[in-house]
Design a protein that fits this description.
eleven-stranded mixed sheet, disordered C terminus, single chain, Transcription Regulator spoIIAA, alpha/beta, Rossmann fold
C-alpha cells in the first residue's frame, strides 16, 4: 500500500457570536441583575425565563464569574435568563423557584471544581468556600454538576439540561477520580443530562440556545464543536481510527474488513479484507488501525478516533494513560478530530474543540453591562473570591505552557485569546467609577498567566498543523511570538488613566518567556511589583521538571538576575516568591532533599507549599494513576513513572520543603533516619534540621555550593551520583 500524502490542515473561521438574529424577548432589555426570584422577574415584566442557569457559586455580576458571563451573553442574544445560585440540592423544590424554563437549564459547578473546592490535596474536608457568602463551607454538593442536573430532571423531566463549566469540561470522557481512587464515567452519563459544552463555551452556548429557540432538539446538535453528546453508534460514512490497541506490530500487511460476515479464515475473505478499505460504501463505517492512518486518504471532517472504552480504561491503567495522550494530542481546534469512547451500550461523542474567540468577540463578552458587585440579596455578606478580584482585569484567556499538573489547557485551550487594548482600558475606567470604595489600586492585569497577552504562533498555517503539547517546552518554539511589547504598552497606558494610582501584576508569570524580552521585565519590575512577585519554578530537579513540562532552574536564575538588576535601578527593595510542588509524579524523596538544600542556599523559607493535586484529565494525573508517561508514546513496555501516593510520603515531601518549621522536625527526623540519612540531622552546613535536645539550634545558613545549584551531600559510604 502506498503512503498517502498527509492531510494539510488550514486555519478555520467561525461565525461571530454576535451575528445571530436576536430572540424575540430582546424587547425586555437589559436587567440590572439577572433575576434570582419570582419577585425580580415580576419587576422586569417577565412571565417566565427562557433559560435558567444553576450555579455552585454565589451570583456575582462580574466578568470573572462564569455564570455571569454566560448569563449576560445569552441576555445579549435576546433571551430572558434567570440564575439559581447554590440551591439546596437535597430536594427538587429549590430548582422550581423561577418556574419552568422555556428552553433549557444550564448547569455549572461554578468557577472551581466542586471536589477540589471541597477537599484539600490530603483529602481533608475544607471548612470554607471563597465563592460563598461569608466564606461558608458546605453550600454546594460534591460532584455538583451531576447532582444539580439530576435535581433539574426531577423538577422538570422534559426540560433539556446543558452541562458546562470547568467541572463538566474536565470530566467529558472517562476520567481518573482522585477522591474515590477509581476511573469514573463521563459526567454526561452520570448526570443524565442532554449535552455537555466544554471550554469557555460562548460559541456553543449561543448556538445551542438559538437552535432550541427554533424548536430543534439535541438530535440536531450532534456535530457541534465544543460539545459532547451520547450516541448509539458511529454514524455511517465516517472513518474510525482505532487506537484501542497500543502494541500494534510495525508492519501490518492486511487490514481486515469488519463488515465481512464470511468465515474470516477463507481465502475469499482474506482477499476481500485486503481490498476492503477501498470497497466500503458510505452506508457503513470504515475502521482503520491507528498505526495505518497515515497510509489513507481521510476526510478529517468525517474521521473520528476511537479511544479505549470506559471498561478498558477503568481496568487497565496503561490504556488510561494512552487515552489521555490521544485526547491531549487532539486539542488544537484547527486539526483536532472527533473522539469516541464506548460506555456500555452507548458512545460518548466528543466533537472537536471550539474555535477560539477573536479579539472583537472577547471585547463583546467583557463589555456587557455588568453590575460588578454581588447580587443585592446577599446584603453585606462578604464573598472572599469577589473581594480578591473586584479590582482585577482579565486581559486574555488560554495558556500554551502545557504544564501537566494544570487544568487550564484542558479547559481553556492552548490558543491565547486576547482583548483589545481599548476594551481593557475601558474596564479600568468602569472599575474606577463603579466599584464601591475603590482606592485607585488595581489588583491585577492578567489571566491564566501574566505575560501571554497577544502572544500566538507567527504562522497560521504552521499552527493549523501543530500538535505540540507545549509551545515553550522543552524549548520555546521558534514559531512563537515572544515580543511582549503589546503588554508593555498596555501597562504604560493603564497607568495614565485618571484615578488609577497603582497597578500590581498578581497573575503567575511565565518567567522563561519573560526573559526573552528584558524591556518587559524592566517595565514590570519598575512599576508593577507590589514588593513581592509570584513565580512558579515548581522544582529544581530534572526528573520532576521533565514530568511537569517546566523549564530548568537556569531560566529562574536568569530572571532573578534581571529582577534584582531592575529593582536596584528603580531604588526598590522587592522580592521573588517562588512556588514549588511536592509529591509530583516523577519526584523522588532525594529530589525534594535537593530542592530543600537549594532553598537553604538561597535563604528561602516557604510559608505555603502545594502538594500535587491530581485533577481530572490532567496529564500528570494520568501519570499518577497509571505509572506511565503520556508525554511519550504508550506501550505495555513503557518505562514506569514513580509517584508518591501514600499520604505519609506526600506529607513527608511537603514537610521537606518546610524544613525550617519546627512542627515538621519530629516527622523529618524519623523519616531521615529510616532512609539512612541521619547525616541530614544536626547543626552542620550539610544538615537540614537540628537534632533533639535542649541545646538544639535552628539550621545554620546554607553553605556556598560549587556550581549553579546546591546538591545533596552523598549518602554515607556511597559514591557521589
Amino acid at each position: 500500500m502506498s503512503l498517502a500524502k498527509p492531510v494539510q490542515f488550514t486555519p478555520i473561521k467561525a461565525p461571530n457570536i454576535f451575528s445571530y438574529p436576536k430572540y424575540w424577548a430582546e424587547c425586555y432589555g437589559t436587567a440590572p441583575f439577572l433575576p434570582m426570584s419570582r419577585e425580580e422577574m415580576d419587576t422586569l415584566g417577565w412571565d417566565s425565563c427562557d433559560i435558567i442557569i444553576v450555579s455552585g457559586d454565589a451570583y456575582v455580576d462580574h466578568p470573572s464569574f462564569g455564570a455571569a458571563i454566560i448569563g449576560r451573553l445569552l441576555e445579549s442574544q435576546g433571551f430572558r435568563v434567570g440564575i439559581i445560585a447554590q440551591p439546596d440540592w437535597r430536594r427538587a423544590e429549590p430548582f422550581k423557584v423561577l418556574g419552568k424554563p422555556n428552553l433549557f437549564f444550564g448547569i455549572t459547578a461554578g468557577n472551581m471544581d466542586s471536589m477540589i473546592n471541597r477537599y484539600t490535596a490530603d483529602l481533608r474536608l475544607r471548612s470554607d468556600d471563597a465563592y460563598t457568602p461569608n466564606n461558608e463551607g458546605g453550600k454546594r454538593p460534591e460532584r455538583a454538576v451531576t447532582v444539580y442536573s439530576q435535581r433539574c430532571k426531577e423538577a422538570f423531566k422534559e426540560v433539556p439540561v446543558v452541562l458546562g463549566g470547568i467541572e463538566a469540561s474536565l470530566r467529558r470522557i472517562a476520567q481518573y477520580d482522585y477522591w474515590s481512587d477509581k476511573v469514573r464515567r463521563s459526567v454526561l452519563m452520570d448526570a443524565t443530562a442532554d449535552i455537555l459544552l466544554y471550554g469557555n463555551a460562548e460559541r456553543a452556548i449561543v448556538n445551542v440556545a438559538h437552535l432550541f429557540a427554533q424548536g430543534k432538539t439535541v438530535a440536531d446538535m450532534q456535530f457541534m464543536r465544543g460539545t459532547v453528546v451520547i450516541r448509539d453508534a458511529v454514524p455511517n460514512g465516517w472513518t474510525e481510527l482505532d487506537s484501542t490497541r497500543i502494541d500494534w506490530p510495525k508492519h501490518i500487511d492486511k487490514i481486515p474488513n469488519p463488515y465481512v460476515v464470511e468465515d474470516q479464515n477463507s481465502e475469499a475473505c482474506q482477499t476481500q479484507s485486503a481490498q476492503g478499505q477501498q470497497e466500503i460504501s458510505d452506508d457503513v463505517v470504515r475502521i482503520i488501525p491507528m498505526p495505518l492512518h497515515r497510509q489513507q486518504e481521510l476526510d478529517p471532517a468525517k474521521t473520528c478516533i476511537r479511544l479505549p472504552s470506559f471498561d478498558k480504561v477503568r481496568n487497565d491503567p496503561v490504556l488510561y494513560s494512552h487515552a489521555s495522550r490521544v485526547l491531549h494530542l487532539e486539542s488544537n481546534p484547527m486539526n483536532a478530530r472527533t473522539l469516541v469512547q464506548r460506555h456500555g451500550d452507548k458512545e460518548i461523542w466528543v466533537n472537536p474543540p471550539p474555535i477560539p474567540l477573536e479579539t472583537e468577540e472577547m471585547d463583546g463578552v467583557f463589555g456587557f453591562a455588568y453590575a460588578r458587585i454581588p447580587h443585592p440579596s446577599y446584603g453585606k455578606a462578604v464573598i472572599p473570591a469577589y473581594d480578591m478580584i473586584k479590582t482585577s482585569v482579565n486581559i486574555m484567556r488560554g495558556c500554551f505552557g502545557g504544564c501537566t499538573f494544570c487544568s487550564i489547557t484542558e479547559h481553556e485551550g492552548r490558543v491565547i485569546q486576547s482583548r483589545s487594548e481599548e476594551s481593557i482600558l475601558r474596564e479600568l475606567e468602569e472599575i474606577r467609577d463603579k466599584v464601591p470604595g475603590f482606592t485607585g489600586a488595581i489588583s491585577d492585569l492578567g489571566g491564566p498567566t501574566a505575560n501571554m497577552y497577544m502572544l500566538n504562533c507567527k504562522d497560521a498555517k504552521i499552527h493549523a498543523n501543530c500538535r505540540r503539547l507545549s509551545c515553550v517546552y522543552p524549548t520555546i518554539c521558534k514559531s512563537l511570538v515572544t515580543d511582549h511589547s503589546a503588554t508593555t504598552q498596555l501597562y504604560r497606558k493603564a497607568r495614565q488613566i485618571k484615578g488609577i494610582k497603582k497597578i500590581v501584576i498578581a497573575s503567575g508569570l511565565r518567567y522563561d518567556l519573560a526573559i526573552q524580552d528584558p524591556e518587559y521585565v524592566k517595565e514590570l519590575v519598575t512599576h508593577h511589583v507590589g514588593g513581592y512577585l509570584k513565580i512558579a519554578p515548581e522544582h529544581t530537579e530534572e526528573g520532576p521538571l521533565s514530568k511537569m513540562m517546566k523549564p530548568g532552574i537556569g531560566s529562574f536564575d536568569t530572571f532573578k538576575m534581571l529582577f534584582e538588576k531592575y529593582s536596584k535601578a528603580a531604588g526598590k527593595k522587592q522580592y521573588l516568591i517562588p512556588y514549588f510542588i511536592a509529591a509530583h509524579p516523577g519526584c523522588e524523596d532525594d529530589d525534594m532533599i535537593n530542592l530543600a538544600f537549594w532553598l537553604k542556599k538561597h535563604d528561602y523559607r516557604l510559608d505555603q507549599v502545594q502538594t500535587f493535586y491530581p485533577s481530572p484529565m490532567a496529564l500528570a494525573t494520568a501519570m499518577y494513576h497509571s505509572g506511565r508517561d503520556p508525554l511519550k508514546k504508550i506501550t505495555y513496555k513503557s518505562g514506569r513513572v514513580n509517584t508518591p501516593k501514600s499520604l505519609e510520603q506526600r506529607r513527608f515531601q511537603k514537610a521537606v520543603l518546610r524544613f525550617h518549621d519546627e512542627k515538621n522536625w519530629p516527622m523529618l527526623r524519623a523519616q531521615f533516619r529510616q532512609m539512612g540519612r541521619a547525616d541530614l540531622i544536626g547543626n552542620g552546613p550539610n544538615a537540614l534540621i537540628p537534632d533533639e535536645g535542649p541545646q538544639r539550634r535552628k539550621p545554620a545558613p546554607g553553605p556556598i555550593f560549587k556550581g549553579r545549584l546546591g546538591r545533596v551531600p552523598p549518602r554515607p559510604n556511597k559514591p557521589k551520583r
